[in-house]
């Protein structure tokens, strides 16, 4: 089986669990840019599955925050596609529901990866003055949230919720789990759907596992 469902200690869904031995789908079953031929091992999560899961997360956010004025903090660059699709689905639900969410979107950028390694040197760009967050409900999307949350909390928002498309099973990762999780995945370096390897693969619709030859080809 591809996946199961994780349940967090407080009873919330921890997302769809993709097991460690999941081999992914053959690249031959899907369309992907020809310039990445030989650079990928498999399709790990197809685009259609991402879209369906994102729609469900949007519904959960509407159920929880439908009476609040919210600000969506999109973490660039890797979070932009998930954020755009999530916001589109929240807007669609808001148009067709008795509960409407006034919503603004603000963009910030975190950079912490060099090649396929996460570094300790984390830079936050675009978050110098977030005073407009005071009293608002915040939905943050993207990775590397622990450092960002400390920064955002200083501006005293009414509440903070985190939405993450992917959570990797790595040691010490459970202390800062998102409130809304798309998929829990093994600790493998994945690309596509705006996730990059040295700025490549953002133009890939599916989430895929990069091959060793791909890492070598695009290493800096």
UniProtKB/TrEMBL annotation:
One Gene Ontology term from the biological process aspect of the record: guanine salvage
A GO CC term attached to the entry: cytosol
Molecular function terms, GO-annotated: hypoxanthine phosphoribosyltransferase activity; magnesium ion binding; nucleotide binding
Phosphoribosyltransferase domain boundaries: 51-197
SUPFAM superfamilies per UniProt: PRTase-like (SSF53271)
Membrane-spanning intervals of the chain: none
Entry similarity comment: Belongs to the purine/pyrimidine phosphoribosyltransferase family.
Protein name per UniProt: Phosphoribosyltransferase domain-containing protein 1
């Amino acid at each position: 089986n591809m996946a199961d469902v994780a349940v967090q200690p407080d009873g919330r869904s921890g997302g769809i669990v993709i097991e460690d031995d999941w081999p992914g789908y053959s690249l031959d079953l899907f369309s992907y840019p020809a310039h990445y031929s030989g650079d990928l091992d498999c399709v790990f999560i197809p685009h259609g599955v991402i879209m369906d899961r994102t729609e469900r997360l949007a519904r959960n956010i509407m159920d929880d925050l439908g009476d609040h004025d919210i600000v969506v903090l999109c973490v660039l660059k890797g979070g932009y596609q998930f954020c755009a699709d999530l916001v589109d689905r929240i807007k669609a639900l808001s148009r067709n529901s008795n509960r409407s969410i006034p919503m603004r979107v603000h963009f910030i950028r975190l950079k912490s990866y060099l090649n396929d390694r996460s570094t300790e040197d984390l830079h936050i760009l675009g978050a110098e003055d977030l005073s407009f967050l005071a009293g608002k409900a915040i939905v943050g999307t993207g990775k590397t949230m622990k450092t960002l949350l400390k920064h955002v909390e200083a501006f005293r928002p009414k509440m903070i919720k985190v939405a993450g498309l992917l959570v990797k099973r790595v040691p010490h990762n459970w202390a800062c789990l998102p409130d809304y999780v798309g998929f829990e995945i093994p600790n493998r370096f994945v690309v596509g759907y705006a996730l990059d390897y040295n700025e490549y693969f953002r133009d890939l619709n599916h989430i895929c596992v990069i091959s060793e030859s791909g890492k070598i080809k695009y290493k800096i």
